[in-house]
Amino acid sequence: MSASAPIWVKICANTSLEDAQLAADAGADAVGFVFAPSPRRVTAAQVAAITPHLPPALEKIGVFVDARFEEIVATVPECGLTGVQVHSAGLPTLPAQLRQQFGSQVRILRAIHFGSDAAQEAQKLAADPNIDAILVDSRTATAVGGTGQTFDWTHARTTVFAAPSPIKLIAAGGLTPANVVEAIATLRPWGVDVASGVEASPGRKDPAKVRDFVAYARAARG
Questions:
Q1: Would you tell me how many other CB atoms lie within 10 Å of the CB of residue 45?
Q2: Separation between Cα atoms, residue 87 and residue 160, nearest integer Å
Q3: Catalytic residue ranges
Q4: pLDDT tens digit string along 74-121?
Q5: Rounded distance, CA 71 to CA 84, Å?
Q6: Is 122 helix (H, G, I), strand (E, B) or coil?
Q7: What is the bridge-based pairing of β-strands 199-201 and 204-205?
Q8: Distance between CA 42 and CA 36 in Å, rounded?
Protein backbone atom coordinates (compact mmCIF):
# COMPACT_ATOMS: atom_id res chain seq x y z
CA MET A 1 0.00 0.00 0.00
CA SER A 2 1.38 3.36 -0.99
CA ALA A 3 2.39 5.51 1.93
CA SER A 4 0.69 8.46 0.25
CA ALA A 5 -2.71 6.78 -0.15
CA PRO A 6 -5.34 8.11 2.26
CA ILE A 7 -5.95 5.79 5.19
CA TRP A 8 -9.45 4.35 5.65
CA VAL A 9 -10.66 4.71 9.25
CA LYS A 10 -13.49 2.74 10.86
CA ILE A 11 -14.79 3.39 14.36
CA CYS A 12 -16.50 0.15 15.35
CA ALA A 13 -18.88 -1.13 18.02
CA ASN A 14 -21.14 1.90 18.20
CA THR A 15 -24.23 1.56 20.36
CA SER A 16 -25.81 5.02 20.09
CA LEU A 17 -26.51 7.78 17.61
CA GLU A 18 -24.36 10.11 19.73
CA ASP A 19 -21.28 7.90 19.32
CA ALA A 20 -21.83 7.20 15.63
CA GLN A 21 -22.28 10.90 14.94
CA LEU A 22 -19.15 11.62 16.95
CA ALA A 23 -17.17 9.31 14.65
CA ALA A 24 -18.63 11.02 11.60
CA ASP A 25 -17.84 14.49 12.94
CA ALA A 26 -14.27 13.37 13.73
CA GLY A 27 -13.78 12.45 10.08
CA ALA A 28 -14.06 8.66 10.14
CA ASP A 29 -14.86 6.92 6.86
CA ALA A 30 -17.01 4.24 8.46
CA VAL A 31 -18.82 3.23 11.62
CA GLY A 32 -19.46 -0.34 12.71
CA PHE A 33 -22.32 -2.01 14.56
CA VAL A 34 -21.85 -5.39 16.24
CA PHE A 35 -24.68 -7.90 15.77
CA ALA A 36 -22.88 -10.67 17.68
CA PRO A 37 -22.55 -11.60 21.37
CA SER A 38 -20.53 -8.79 22.93
CA PRO A 39 -20.83 -6.06 25.57
CA ARG A 40 -21.26 -3.83 22.52
CA ARG A 41 -23.98 -5.84 20.83
CA VAL A 42 -26.87 -3.97 19.23
CA THR A 43 -30.14 -5.06 17.68
CA ALA A 44 -31.33 -4.40 14.16
CA ALA A 45 -34.05 -2.15 15.57
CA GLN A 46 -31.49 -0.03 17.42
CA VAL A 47 -29.32 0.42 14.35
CA ALA A 48 -32.32 1.13 12.12
CA ALA A 49 -33.10 4.06 14.41
CA ILE A 50 -29.54 5.41 14.16
CA THR A 51 -28.44 5.20 10.53
CA PRO A 52 -31.04 7.53 8.94
CA HIS A 53 -29.54 10.38 10.99
CA LEU A 54 -25.95 9.80 9.84
CA PRO A 55 -24.25 11.45 6.84
CA PRO A 56 -25.00 9.59 3.58
CA ALA A 57 -21.29 9.35 2.72
CA LEU A 58 -20.44 7.65 6.01
CA GLU A 59 -20.15 3.88 5.59
CA LYS A 60 -22.36 1.87 7.93
CA ILE A 61 -20.97 -1.61 8.46
CA GLY A 62 -22.61 -4.50 10.27
CA VAL A 63 -20.35 -6.97 12.08
CA PHE A 64 -21.58 -10.58 11.96
CA VAL A 65 -20.03 -13.63 13.63
CA ASP A 66 -21.13 -17.05 12.36
CA ALA A 67 -24.34 -15.46 11.11
CA ARG A 68 -26.60 -17.18 8.61
CA PHE A 69 -26.95 -15.70 5.13
CA GLU A 70 -30.65 -15.10 5.76
CA GLU A 71 -29.92 -13.07 8.89
CA ILE A 72 -27.46 -10.82 7.10
CA VAL A 73 -29.75 -10.35 4.10
CA ALA A 74 -32.59 -9.28 6.37
CA THR A 75 -30.45 -6.95 8.50
CA VAL A 76 -28.70 -4.99 5.74
CA PRO A 77 -31.78 -3.25 4.28
CA GLU A 78 -33.55 -2.93 7.63
CA CYS A 79 -30.59 -1.07 9.11
CA GLY A 80 -29.52 0.85 6.02
CA LEU A 81 -26.09 -0.80 6.05
CA THR A 82 -23.58 -0.13 3.28
CA GLY A 83 -21.18 -2.89 4.29
CA VAL A 84 -20.87 -6.19 6.13
CA GLN A 85 -17.93 -7.56 8.11
CA VAL A 86 -18.03 -11.33 8.26
CA HIS A 87 -16.30 -13.44 10.92
CA SER A 88 -16.80 -17.06 9.86
CA ALA A 89 -14.42 -19.74 8.66
CA GLY A 90 -17.22 -22.24 8.16
CA LEU A 91 -19.03 -20.49 5.31
CA PRO A 92 -16.53 -19.95 2.48
CA THR A 93 -19.30 -19.26 -0.04
CA LEU A 94 -20.89 -16.49 2.04
CA PRO A 95 -19.10 -13.56 0.33
CA ALA A 96 -20.22 -14.85 -3.09
CA GLN A 97 -23.79 -15.20 -1.85
CA LEU A 98 -23.75 -11.68 -0.44
CA ARG A 99 -22.28 -10.27 -3.65
CA GLN A 100 -24.96 -11.96 -5.70
CA GLN A 101 -27.61 -10.57 -3.37
CA PHE A 102 -26.36 -6.98 -3.07
CA GLY A 103 -24.05 -6.42 -6.02
CA SER A 104 -21.47 -3.68 -5.65
CA GLN A 105 -23.70 -1.58 -3.38
CA VAL A 106 -22.40 -3.30 -0.22
CA ARG A 107 -18.74 -3.46 0.82
CA ILE A 108 -17.80 -6.96 1.95
CA LEU A 109 -15.08 -7.30 4.59
CA ARG A 110 -13.75 -10.66 5.73
CA ALA A 111 -12.12 -10.83 9.16
CA ILE A 112 -9.25 -13.16 10.03
CA HIS A 113 -7.17 -13.54 13.18
CA PHE A 114 -3.43 -13.15 13.19
CA GLY A 115 -1.61 -16.42 13.77
CA SER A 116 0.68 -18.95 12.18
CA ASP A 117 -1.61 -19.55 9.19
CA ALA A 118 -2.88 -15.98 8.76
CA ALA A 119 -0.70 -15.19 5.74
CA GLN A 120 -1.86 -18.30 3.91
CA GLU A 121 -5.49 -17.55 4.79
CA ALA A 122 -5.16 -13.95 3.61
CA GLN A 123 -3.70 -15.00 0.27
CA LYS A 124 -6.51 -17.49 -0.23
CA LEU A 125 -9.14 -14.85 0.54
CA ALA A 126 -7.36 -12.34 -1.70
CA ALA A 127 -8.22 -14.59 -4.63
CA ASP A 128 -11.94 -14.23 -3.91
CA PRO A 129 -13.27 -11.40 -6.11
CA ASN A 130 -16.29 -11.02 -3.83
CA ILE A 131 -14.20 -9.81 -0.88
CA ASP A 132 -13.40 -6.08 -0.88
CA ALA A 133 -11.01 -6.06 2.08
CA ILE A 134 -9.52 -8.33 4.75
CA LEU A 135 -9.54 -7.19 8.36
CA VAL A 136 -6.69 -8.65 10.42
CA ASP A 137 -7.62 -8.81 14.10
CA SER A 138 -6.32 -10.29 17.33
CA ARG A 139 -8.15 -12.99 19.23
CA THR A 140 -8.40 -14.30 22.78
CA ALA A 141 -9.88 -17.51 24.15
CA THR A 142 -13.15 -15.72 24.86
CA ALA A 143 -13.48 -13.05 22.16
CA VAL A 144 -13.16 -12.93 18.37
CA GLY A 145 -12.93 -9.13 18.30
CA GLY A 146 -12.92 -6.06 20.53
CA THR A 147 -10.19 -7.72 22.57
CA GLY A 148 -8.15 -4.60 23.23
CA GLN A 149 -5.03 -6.66 22.50
CA THR A 150 -2.55 -6.12 19.69
CA PHE A 151 -0.97 -8.85 17.60
CA ASP A 152 2.72 -9.02 16.66
CA TRP A 153 3.00 -6.17 14.16
CA THR A 154 6.66 -6.86 13.32
CA HIS A 155 5.88 -10.47 12.45
CA ALA A 156 2.72 -9.46 10.60
CA ARG A 157 4.70 -6.92 8.54
CA THR A 158 6.84 -9.75 7.11
CA THR A 159 3.95 -12.20 6.61
CA VAL A 160 0.34 -11.10 6.20
CA PHE A 161 1.13 -7.50 5.26
CA ALA A 162 4.25 -8.28 3.22
CA ALA A 163 3.17 -9.60 -0.17
CA PRO A 164 1.85 -7.14 -2.76
CA SER A 165 -1.82 -7.86 -3.32
CA PRO A 166 -4.81 -6.17 -4.90
CA ILE A 167 -6.78 -6.91 -1.74
CA LYS A 168 -7.08 -4.17 0.86
CA LEU A 169 -5.76 -5.03 4.35
CA ILE A 170 -7.22 -3.43 7.47
CA ALA A 171 -5.34 -3.49 10.77
CA ALA A 172 -7.41 -4.02 13.91
CA GLY A 173 -6.95 -5.36 17.42
CA GLY A 174 -5.74 -3.26 20.33
CA LEU A 175 -5.37 -0.01 18.42
CA THR A 176 -5.53 3.24 20.39
CA PRO A 177 -4.70 6.90 19.79
CA ALA A 178 -1.33 6.19 21.43
CA ASN A 179 -0.26 3.39 19.08
CA VAL A 180 -2.09 3.89 15.79
CA VAL A 181 0.77 5.89 14.25
CA GLU A 182 3.22 3.07 15.05
CA ALA A 183 0.79 0.48 13.68
CA ILE A 184 0.41 2.33 10.39
CA ALA A 185 4.16 2.91 10.06
CA THR A 186 4.89 -0.76 10.73
CA LEU A 187 2.11 -2.47 8.77
CA ARG A 188 1.32 0.12 6.10
CA PRO A 189 -2.30 -1.08 5.90
CA TRP A 190 -5.04 0.20 3.63
CA GLY A 191 -7.18 0.92 6.69
CA VAL A 192 -7.45 0.81 10.47
CA ASP A 193 -10.30 -0.28 12.71
CA VAL A 194 -10.81 0.53 16.38
CA ALA A 195 -13.44 -0.33 18.99
CA SER A 196 -12.39 -0.63 22.64
CA GLY A 197 -9.36 1.61 22.15
CA VAL A 198 -11.53 4.72 21.91
CA GLU A 199 -14.02 3.88 24.66
CA ALA A 200 -14.77 5.46 28.00
CA SER A 201 -16.47 2.20 29.04
CA PRO A 202 -17.68 -0.88 27.10
CA GLY A 203 -20.13 0.39 24.49
CA ARG A 204 -19.54 4.08 25.20
CA LYS A 205 -17.08 6.14 23.20
CA ASP A 206 -14.68 8.73 24.63
CA PRO A 207 -14.99 11.85 22.42
CA ALA A 208 -11.38 12.95 22.86
CA LYS A 209 -10.05 9.47 22.05
CA VAL A 210 -12.20 9.19 18.92
CA ARG A 211 -11.07 12.57 17.63
CA ASP A 212 -7.42 11.87 18.45
CA PHE A 213 -7.50 8.43 16.83
CA VAL A 214 -8.82 9.76 13.53
CA ALA A 215 -6.48 12.75 13.56
CA TYR A 216 -3.37 10.68 14.33
CA ALA A 217 -4.27 8.06 11.71
CA ARG A 218 -4.73 10.78 9.09
CA ALA A 219 -1.44 12.45 10.05
CA ALA A 220 0.43 9.14 9.97
CA ARG A 221 -0.54 8.58 6.36
CA GLY A 222 -0.38 12.25 5.43
A1: 9
A2: 17
A3: 12, 137
A4: 999 999 999 999 998 778 899 999 999 999 999 999 999 998 899 999
A5: 12
A6: helix
A7: antiparallel
A8: 8
Calpha distance 136→104 (Å, rounded): 22
The answer to whether 188 and 217 are in contact (CB under 8 A) is no
State the alpha helices, DSSP H only, in 162-203: 180-187
The residues facing 168 across adjacent strands are 133
User: Residues 201-214: pLDDT tens digits?
Assistant: 999 999 999 999 99
Compute the Cα dihedral for 162, 184, 222, 190 and give only its sign. positive
Q: Which has the closest alpha carbon to 183: 196, 170, 168, 200?
A: 170
pTM for the model stands at 0.93
The terminus-to-terminus CA distance of the chain in angstroms comes to 13
Alpha-carbon distance 197 to 147, whole Å? Answer: 9
* Cα 4 to Cα 1: distance, rounded to the nearest angstrom: 8
Q: Residue 8: in which H helix or E strand, if any?
A: strand 8-11
d(CA 191, CA 200): 23
Report, as an integer, the average pLDDT of 125-144.
81
DSSP tag of 52:
G
